[in-house]
Amino acid sequence: MSTVSDFPMTRIRVHDWMSTDILGSREQGRRLRGLLVDHIHRQDPVTLDFRQIDVMTSAFADECFGKLWDSFDHQVIRRTIVLTGLSGNNPAIFRFVLRHR
Q: Fewer CB atoms near the end CB (10 Å): N or C, the chain?
């Protein structure tokens, strides 16, 4: 566990948790979204480490993050979920999905 602002924060290595370096399907997005919804409901901050993720498609990002964005207060999401290690085109895909909600 790591700490941010004196709050314990769970760290999830997405590559290890999903057992792949390609996040391409809506099913994968639903799996991760389910985990994040649990963290939001428990008010349990989580860091998602995207190191070793080579590809994140808009379908995955929309299913996971877009639907979270539509379902919860944005400040709650920002307080609960921290993303690290996004590389390549993945940050642009993430931003695109949230901008086009």
A: N
User: Is residue 1 a contact partner of residue 11, using CB atoms and an 8 Å limit?
Assistant: yes
The total of structural domains in the chain comes to 1
The alpha carbon of 60 is separated from its chain's Cα centroid by a whole number of angstroms, namely 10
- For residues 51-81, one letter each, b for 16 or more C-beta atoms within 10 angstroms of the residue's C-beta and e for the rest, the string is eebeebbebbbbbbbbbbeeebeeeebeebb
What CA–CA distance (Å, rounded) separates 31 from 89?
22
What domain range includes position 40?
Answer: 2-99
pTM: 0.89
Rounded CA gap, 36 and 13, in Å?
13
Residues of the chain with pLDDT under 50: 1-4
Measured CA to CA, the distance from residue 5 to residue 9 in angstroms comes to 10
